[in-house]
Design brief:
- This protein is an alpha+beta fold and about 90 residues long.
- A three-stranded antiparallel β-sheet has the order 1-2-3.
- The longest helix has 6 residues.
- The chain is elongated and about 75 Å long.
- The two termini are about 35 Å apart.
């Protein structure tokens, strides 16, 4: 059984578990309590977990890939879409 708490003491006391989804603030620390099913002792594991939220990357429209029809003149050609990777990923 896994629960999430805003303070270490709440995790120890097993009170005020947080609901999901959790609204958090940047760099917030939460405490994760794990109770083991079938264990007769009350000896849970409690760990500290720092939440790190990365900003959403800005996505720009990539430049169009333009190629001429090949020698067959059937209105088709092959595109190498990996040519746009660097521009699309923008340093990611």
């Amino acid at each position: 059984d896994v629960t999430f708490h805003l303070t270490y003491q709440n995790a120890v006391d097993d009170v005020l578990p947080q609901s999901s989804p959790l609204s958090n603030v940047l760099g917030q620390v939460i405490y994760v309590r794990v109770d083991y099913a079938g264990v007769d002792t009350d000896c849970p594991t409690i760990v500290e977990l720092q939440l790190i939220v990365q900003p959403t990357p800005e996505i720009a429209d990539p430049s169009p890939l333009e190629l001429c029809d090949d020698a067959v003149a059937d209105g088709m050609t092959q595109f190498d879409l990996t040519q746009a990777n660097t521009e699309i990923l923008n340093g990611l």
